[in-house]
Amino acid sequence: MINKIIIDNFMAHEHTELELGPGVTILTGSNNTGKSAVVEALRCLATNPARSPNPALYIRHGAKEARVEVEVDDGTRVAWVRTKRWAKYELWPPGADEPEEYHKLQGKVPEDVARALRLDRVELETRKDSVDVHLGNQRDPVFLLNQPDSVMAEFFAASTESAHLLAMQNALKIRVRDAKREEKGLDGQVARIAADLDRLDPLPELALRMDGIEELDREAARLEREVPALEAALAEFLSLDGRLARERSTGAALHGIQAPPEVEDVNRLGRHIGAMASVETQLGRAGSAAGALTGLDAPPRTEDAAPLHRLIRELDDTGAILRSASSRRTVLAGLSELPDPADTGELAAVVDELLILRARSARLARLTESLGHVAEPPAPQPLDKLGEVVSLISGLKEQFSTRQAELDGLERDLSAVVAAMDERIKAVGCCPVCGGDLTTDGFLDHGCGHES
Q1: 77-129 pLDDT tens trace
Q2: H helix runs in 118-199, sequence order
Q3: Are 123 and 130 in contact (CB under 8 A)?
Q4: Which of 136, 220, 435, 451 is 20 to 30 A away from residue 86, measured at CA?
Q5: CB 49 within 8 A of CB 106
């Protein structure tokens, strides 16, 4: 009994494995799902059909071979492999690691394979075709269910022992007849072989003659290999002989002629000739160029490209500024809105007061530095020089008043500049470079953290 069926690249099946249980197994399904292909695969395994119909019909499209394998209840595995040119069987006995392969089947099933499968067809005495009692098609069910009663009766009669003995006797007669026919054929074949052997009696003498011929052939080949060398030596000898004759005739013709004059150095002449040839080549090229340029208009007047260059540079700078602004805008797009500015009036007043104190401190430092160079007051002098001192002091007071007026003007200017700067910083609100908080005091102290 078959326990497992494995089908690879057979008709519509790419790879199908069927585990069969004990008893009857029924395949059901819609049309064109491969049910009949399973039955056909088992039939090919059991009968090894010949090349008609075309074996390519069994092989799935795109594959090189079809394979049908079954495993029976005793552990034996049998596989049928079909290509477009040949078929073979593989048989694994129980427990075997490597299969036994059967080739050159000539449309038959090996006896070992048939014995393992036990799917033989039944031969009937009155029918030419055997009966398949194991497999059947959809319209040709198994076990003669669509055959006449006489055929079924003959089948059951063939299954009895007497009918089986008669069938064995008929088979034995057929085998004896075939054996006698084969014996006659073999006798005729032996006679033909003996006649062929008689015709081969002169072979030893022919073999001796062939050995001599082969020796002569080797000698001829050796001489043939030496002929080109002899021909080359003869040609060289003839060439040298002719050259010697020409030399002798030349020597006889030159006999009595004066010696040739001394050869002068012609390197300068060669350089001069080369220079002339180069000049002639350049003249030819110039003439060709002049002929080609005769019909052309005069080149247009060149314009000053400096403004265009400046415009292009300005456009490049503007494009760079726009790209930078676009990238900065892209970076700032994800930032949150600026917080509402707080009231900085009191802070501005404190900053102004600090600035004034800083200016006064700087002025006091300058005054201290100026007074540090002043000498000690002179010793009292006679009163006649007091007038001169008084007039000098009066001049100094006037100078001090003038300098004090200038200093007050500078302080007013500084206060105006600080006020204008404070208004400008309040309008800006934050540092345009880093986006941090910006105050007048912080800007004047350290430029909002940036190097000035």
Answers
A1: 999 999 988 899 999 999 888 999 998 888 888 999 888 888 877 766 666 66
A2: 149-158, 161-199
A3: yes
A4: 136
A5: no
Q: Whole-angstrom Cα distance, residue 406 to residue 436? A: 38
The order of strands in the sheet holding 87-92 is 13-19, 2-10, 66-72, 77-82, 87-92, 100-102
d(CA 385, CA 392): 11
| Six-digit token string for 260 | 């040739």
Is the whole-model pTM more than 0.70? no
C-beta atoms surrounding 122 within 10 Å? 15
Would you tell me the crossing angle of helices 386-428 and 345-372 to the nearest 10 degrees?
A: 150
* pLDDT tens digits, one per residue of 57-73: 889 988 999 999 999 98
The CA-based angle 99-102-104, given to 5 degrees, is: 160
The CA distances from residue 413 to 359, 421, 424, in Å, are: 12, 12, 16
For strand 100-102 and strand 77-82, is the pairing parallel, antiparallel, or unpaired? unpaired
Contacts of residue 48, defined as CB under 8 A and 6 or more positions apart, other chains included, come to 80, 87, 89, 105, 107, 108, 109
Which secondary-structure segment (H or E) carries 4? strand 2-10
Could you give the angle at the alpha carbon of 111 between the alpha carbons of 177 and 1, nearest 5°? 135
Two tokens, residue 165:
């003995």
Distances 383 to 379, 390, 391, 393, 452 between C-alpha atoms, Å:
12, 11, 13, 15, 59
**N-terminal to C-terminal alpha carbon distance within the chain:** 102
Residue type, 306: A
Rounded distance, CA 67 to CA 99, Å? 15
d(CA 251, CA 257): 10
**78 token code pair:** 């049998």
* Amino acid identity for residue 255 in this structure: H
**How many residues in the chain?**
452
Backbone phi and psi for residue 300, each to the nearest 5 degrees, phi listed first: -65, 160
Residues 155, 160, 164, 165: is their CA dihedral positive or negative?
negative
